[in-house]
């Protein structure tokens, strides 16, 4: 099958599709998609009919219905079978997460790299919000997100009121969010405020160099702390690219190098805000993650002493 990563297919059912199963129609209209994989995509929740997510592969299709399929990483990672057992097998391969704080209003989690924060158009299964909802019971509200490959601290609300209050604080930039990132190359400045729009919206990051690492014959790396004023999608990754020093391991915006880490070298290390009900100031910290620690230590050991 052809590479379907991050693909979106939209089409309208034709008269000859009348009465056919959804998986049949999908496989016939998406180049390179087998009927078996079409059933998996439907089971994952990546297929919509007339705007509604449909998970029944045998759903009969009517002419004129609009079918939208989101096919990408979720399908690539999934067991190529359908049903509860297949999805349970997928969940068994997910990296474990750690709850660092919870009360009746919210829950703070240290998210590992490789775990999706929330439902996406590709799938509403196997994400952190879904796993938390089943583990804790009740509704879980997504307040903000971390990218799939980014690790670190993220907060979810457990009540509608807490969700409104926390979301309002984020919009007002009244959240303390600090990240650690290893950048490609040796950054010339020690501190810098980066103001560069993201997707046409104001975006501000405050960057501070923590450590420069320069193994002989290599381009070097700079461990940098980013404190966010705004929190646009991929803001740190785009701001680092704007400065000419992309985040190491960034397959979307960066470039390969001899220093590449095992995954994106970006970690949400601090999260702080005022509790939405009690008014108490809360903050948590998460150190540089274990899966990147050996890689960073190897860079340190290969950097000549000054």
UniProtKB/TrEMBL annotation:
<feature type="domain" description="RNA-binding S4">
    <location>
        <begin position="20"/>
        <end position="83"/>
    </location>
</feature>
<dbReference type="GO" id="GO:0000455">
    <property type="term" value="P:enzyme-directed rRNA pseudouridine synthesis"/>
</dbReference>
<dbReference type="Pfam" id="PF00849">
    <property type="entry name" value="PseudoU_synth_2"/>
</dbReference>
<dbReference type="Pfam" id="PF01479">
    <property type="entry name" value="S4"/>
</dbReference>
<dbReference type="InterPro" id="IPR036986">
    <property type="entry name" value="S4_RNA-bd_sf"/>
</dbReference>
<dbReference type="InterPro" id="IPR050188">
    <property type="entry name" value="RluA_PseudoU_synthase"/>
</dbReference>
<dbReference type="InterPro" id="IPR006145">
    <property type="entry name" value="PsdUridine_synth_RsuA/RluA"/>
</dbReference>
<keyword id="KW-0413">Isomerase</keyword>
<keyword id="KW-0694">RNA-binding</keyword>
<protein>
    <submittedName>
        <fullName>RluA family pseudouridine synthase</fullName>
    </submittedName>
</protein>
<comment type="similarity">
    <text>Belongs to the pseudouridine synthase RluA family.</text>
</comment>
<dbReference type="GO" id="GO:0120159">
    <property type="term" value="F:rRNA pseudouridine synthase activity"/>
</dbReference>
<dbReference type="InterPro" id="IPR002942">
    <property type="entry name" value="S4_RNA-bd"/>
</dbReference>
<dbReference type="GO" id="GO:0003723">
    <property type="term" value="F:RNA binding"/>
</dbReference>
<dbReference type="InterPro" id="IPR006224">
    <property type="entry name" value="PsdUridine_synth_RluA-like_CS"/>
</dbReference>
<dbReference type="InterPro" id="IPR020103">
    <property type="entry name" value="PsdUridine_synth_cat_dom_sf"/>
</dbReference>
């Amino acid at each position: 099958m052809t590479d379907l990563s991050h693909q979106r297919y939209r089409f309208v059912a034709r008269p000859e599709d009348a009465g056919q199963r959804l998986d049949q129609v999908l496989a016939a209209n998406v180049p390179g998609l087998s009927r078996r994989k079409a059933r998996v995509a439907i089971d994952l929740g990546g297929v919509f009919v007339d705007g509604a997510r449909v998970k029944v592969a045998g759903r009969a299709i009517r002419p004129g219905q609009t079918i939208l399929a989101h096919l990408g990483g979720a399908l690539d990672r999934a067991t190529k079978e359908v049903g509860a057992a297949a999805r349970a097998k997928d969940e068994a391969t997910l990296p474990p997460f750690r709850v660092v704080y919870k009360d009746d209003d919210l829950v703070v989690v240290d998210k590992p790299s490789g775990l999706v924060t929330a439902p996406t158009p590709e799938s509403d299964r196997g994400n952190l919000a879904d796993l938390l909802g089943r583990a804790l019971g009740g509704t879980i509200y997504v307040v903000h997100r971390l990218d799939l490959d980014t690790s670190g601290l993220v907060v979810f609300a457990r009540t509608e009121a807490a969700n409104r209050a926390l979301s309002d604080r984020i919009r007002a930039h009244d959240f303390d969010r600090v990240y650690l990132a290893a950048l490609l190359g040796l950054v010339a400045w020690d501190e810098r405020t980066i103001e560069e729009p993201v997707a046409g919206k104001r975006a501000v990051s405050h960057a501070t160099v923590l450590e420069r690492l320069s193994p002989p014959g290599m381009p070097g790396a700079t461990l940098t702390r980013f404190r966010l004023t705004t929190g646009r999608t991929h803001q740190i990754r785009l701001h680092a690219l704007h400065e000419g020093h992309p985040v190491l391991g960034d397959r979307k915006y960066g470039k390969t190098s001899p220093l590449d880490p095992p995954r994106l070298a970006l970690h949400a290390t601090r999260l702080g805000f005022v509790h939405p009900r009690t008014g108490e100031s809360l903050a948590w910290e998460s150190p540089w993650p274990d899966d990147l620690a050996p890689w960073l230590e190897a860079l340190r050991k290969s950097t000549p002493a000054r």
